Amino acid sequence: MRIIPSPIISLIIVSTSRKRLLLHFDASAKTSTGQSLNSILLNGGSIQDELFSLVNRFRTHKYAFNADIQKMYRQILIEPSRRDPQIIVWKETNNSLLKIYQLNTVTYVMVSVPILAMRVLKALADAEHEDFSEAAKIISRHMHDILSGATSLTLEKKLQVDISELLRRGAFELHKWVSHHPAFLMVFLHQNIHLKIRSRTQ
């Protein structure tokens, strides 16, 4: 297998509280051969519902909510024999020794990532369908953002619990919960979770 490392742009972010290094991978940068990593990877197509269908379905719910899977890509391991394209060549300074690192999880700039992530969520939903049938259907339709709802507040809260527990069995955590109904978000007040309440008039 040819190994085409992704070029990295490093950004040093300085704030009043801390300084941190952010890395940006460019898997579409061409090498001397005229090829990039993305040009030799298969994108796998899509198994996610069309955006129009997702939004249209979301609008039908009397009680609706939205949540995000926290650091989803960092929870998905790549099979060890498939990690060679995910190497990082790194030097601290011109005089430093060359270091080579390998990423073990899916990397968001690669064209194959959406299908890999979606396939993992679908496999998890299929595996847990017997315990969480409705939650499994919802997870199978989405990527890292969950858009759903119910006809009553009681059912909405049950969905929240079931979706959270199903994803937790795959080592995924939901955060950034959003709902137009304050009562739905009350359950999170004792947790360190980012919440947002939207009134019907907004």
Walk me through this protein's architecture.
28% of the residues lie in helices and 22% in strands. The protein has one domain. It is an alpha+beta fold. Mean pLDDT is 79; it is low at 192-202. The chain has 6 helices and 8 strands. The chain has helices at residues 37-40, 51-58, 113-127, 133-141, 153-168, 182-185; strands spanning 8-14, 19-25, 63-69, 87-90, 99-102, 145-150, 174-179, 195-197.
Quick rundown:
By secondary structure, the chain is an alpha+beta fold. It is built from six helices and eight strands; from the N terminus they run E-E-H-H-E-E-E-H-H-E-H-E-H-E. The strands form three sheets. A four-stranded mixed beta sheet has the order 6-3-7-8. Strands 1-2 form a two-stranded antiparallel sheet.
Fill in the keyword field for this structure:
single chain, 202 residues, alpha+beta, 4-stranded mixed beta sheet, two-stranded antiparallel sheet, 8 strands, DNA/RNA_pol_sf, Reverse transcriptase domain-containing protein
Approximate shape? elongated
As residue ranges, the low-confidence spans are 192-202
What's the total number of strands?
8
Work out the helix count.
6
Alpha-beta content class: alpha+beta
Protein name: Reverse transcriptase domain-containing protein
SSE layout and pairings?
Elements: E1 8-14, E2 19-25, H1 37-40, H2 51-58, E3 63-69, E4 87-90, E5 99-102, H3 113-127, H4 133-141, E6 145-150, H5 153-168, E7 174-179, H6 182-185, E8 195-197
Parallel strand pairs: 7-8
Antiparallel strand pairs: 1-2, 3-6, 3-7, 4-5
